[in-house]
Structure formats: structure tokens, C-alpha cells
Amino acid sequence: MRRTHAVLLSAGLFLGSLTLTPAALAEGEQTDNVPPPPQVEQTAPDAQAQAPVVATPAQPQDNAAQPVAPNNYDLTTIVIDYKEYKVGDVVPDEYRGKSYIISEWQPRHLPAPQEDTHWAYINANYILITNDTGKIVMAKSGDIFFKG
């Protein structure tokens, strides 16, 4: 019985010390500082021919005011039912129904629809389409709703 207690106590101390080993080894070591991944900005339709712009983390400067660029919510391509659409394409008939039409565009920070067009909410994006043919006139990211 005494021998069993000694073995169990020794095993407990051994296992307890194993959990402290990584902390002891890591003491004094510096952790790896991994920089955040670069942010890719959405491009406007007129800038399609250019290479995508990649934003790099800015280095803080003393007493330097940096201008804040407005967010660009314009989309050049829209995916609907696993198919890619662009401005000028026609949306499928099922997305022209009343359940997709946005009548209150102001609270969603959308520009006023042009004559004979309306905003539709399709796949978490806002798409301005013509009333008669369903041709895509403009597309905005659904994130525009959260614009402050």
C-alpha cells in the first residue's frame, strides 16, 4: 500500500512539472511579432485596368494629421447564383420581384435611383437595375448600410 502511494505521488509530481515546462522554456524568449495581412481596397469601375492597390500599415508620425479617405462601396462584379455579373448585364427574372426591391434607400446610405430604375438587395449587395429589362446600372457593397 505504501509503495502504491509513493508511485502515485511521484507520477502526480512528474505530470505536474510537465505542465510547467513550456512556461519555463518560453521565459525570456520573445514572441514572434507577425504583421497583419495587407488590406486590399475595392477599385472603382474606371480603374479596372490598373493593378489592385494594396494598403500597407502606416507608421505613426508625431503630430502628423493624416487625411481619411472615404470608403468606396462601388462593386465592379456581382455574384448571383454562382454566376458573375457586371454593370450592363441583366439580372435573372426571379430577382426583379417586389421582395427584392428597396423602396427606402436613404437609411441604407444609397444614392437616389435614376429615372426608371430601382434598388434591389441581392446576395447582401445593393444593385441598381432598370425597371423594364433588369439591366444592372450600379452596384454597391452591402457594407454601405453600416457607413457612419
Sum up the structure in keywords.
single chain, 148 residues, alpha+beta, Nuclear Transport Factor 2, Chain: A, two-stranded antiparallel ribbon
Protein model, in words:
InterPro entries: RcnB. By secondary structure, this protein is α+β, with helices and mostly antiparallel strands. It has a domain at about 75-148: inner membrane protein cigr (Nuclear Transport Factor 2, Chain: A, Roll), CATH 3.10.450.160. The chain has one helix at about 1-25, and strands at about 40, 55, 75-80, 85, 100, 115-120, 125-130, 135-140. The strands form three sheets. Strands 5-6-7-8 form a four-stranded antiparallel beta sheet, with no helix packed on it. A two-stranded antiparallel ribbon has the order 1-2. A hairpin with a 2-residue loop joins strand 6 and strand 7. The longest helix has 25 residues, at about 1-25. About 10% of the residues are buried. Mean pLDDT is about 75; it is low at about 60-70.
Topology:
Blueprint: H1 2-26, E1 39-40, E2 54-55, E3 77-80, E4 83-86, E5 101-102, E6 117-122, E7 125-130, E8 136-141
Antiparallel strand pairs: 1-2, 3-4, 5-6, 6-7, 7-8
Kindly state the mean pLDDT as a whole number?
75
CATH fold annotation of the domain at 73-148: Nuclear Transport Factor 2, Chain: A
Outline: rod-shaped
CATH class category label of the domain at 73-148: Alpha Beta
Cα end-to-end separation: 72 Å
Describe the sheet with the most strands.
4 strands, antiparallel
- Cα gyration radius (Å): 28 Å
Q: What is the CATH homology-level superfamily of the domain at 73-148? A: inner membrane protein cigr
Number of strands: 8
- Taken as a percent bin, the fraction of beta residues is 15-25%
Number of helices: 1
Strand arrangement within the widest β-sheet reads 5-6-7-8
